Amino acid sequence: MRILPPMSTLRAFEATARTGSVTRAAEELCRTHGAVSRQLRQLQDHAGVELFERDGTGVRLNDHGHAFYDVVRAVFEQLEQGYGRVLDQARGPTLHVACSATFAMRWLVPELADFYRVRPDIRIRLSMTSAREMRTEGADVVIAWDLSSYPAADQQRAMPLAPVLFGPVCTPDHAKRIANGVRITHDFTSSAWDQWEAKTGKRIAPNGGLTFPHTHLCIQAALAGLGVALVEQRLIRGELDSGALVAPYGFTAFDGGLRAVPAERQACAGMHADIAAFVGWLRERLG
């Protein structure tokens, strides 16, 4: 016999601890404030200890609450992941792919129709994260060009997909003053400008500018005429073709290129057939 409180009280506790608010927890759980408060009281009565303390008009975890939340959060995450795996198995073969949000939106998703035409038996599940956050935990394969912050083992497993070519892009009007223009930088791959300058011998607004956490925001800033963004050519093909953006210095190949990093569990078990099929398709479509 398991000695556990009712599951509804644990859901109320987890949501309240995570959001820091009974009101927000009630909204998330589609319950009333009073109902969640009663569930929290029921849990604390069952445990025989207080888990929260007053914090102004809200509540916060006390030491007992923090210790219990660490356990509950881990169990809920394991339960969510396990449930997701069951659903994936029921729906058929699924390949979990992690990549940057900009690459997913501007290249991968528009191209997926071709992959499904070739391999209708494999379903792609995407995780779109920033370059700083991309790791292989939970994903079967990660697509990235800058692996400088990745562990050495990940870099060794990386499989080449295609060269990457970066170039400064801006509006036609901004191009007239590009040498002294405003530099637009990606928060987490700011070294891209250093690599471009080292390879071309050119410099653009070296004394600061605008920074954004995602490449698509850098592109939007360039489209708005705010400055010069350094972007991989595949991600702005539409804007270049339409003339909304221009690349006065063309595009320069960067070291490493775009690569696919399979999860360690996949590498240890041998290359999974679905990953091999997806990587092969990527290489063909990327040219």
UniProtKB/TrEMBL annotation:
GO terms for molecular function: DNA-binding transcription factor activity; sequence-specific DNA binding. It comes from the Bacteria. PANTHER family: HTH-TYPE TRANSCRIPTIONAL REGULATOR, HTH-TYPE TRANSCRIPTIONAL REGULATOR TRPI. InterPro entries: LysR-type_TF_proteobact-type, LysR_HTH_N, LysR_subst-bd, WH-like_DNA-bd_sf, WH_DNA-bd_sf. GO terms for biological process: DNA-templated transcription. It holds the Pfam family LysR_substrate. Transmembrane segments: none annotated. This is LysR family transcriptional regulator. Keywords: DNA-binding, Transcription, Transcription regulation. Residues 7-62 form the HTH lysR-type domain. Belongs to the LysR transcriptional regulatory family.
